[in-house]
Amino acid sequence: MNNGKYVIPRRDGKVLAGSTLEDVGFDKRTTEQAKEELADMAIDLFPGLASCPISAHWSGLRPGSPDGIPYIGQMKEFDNLYINAGHYRNGLVLAPASVALLSAIVSGESTPIPSEPYNPLIRV
Question: What is the pTM of this model?
Answer without folding.
Answer: 0.71
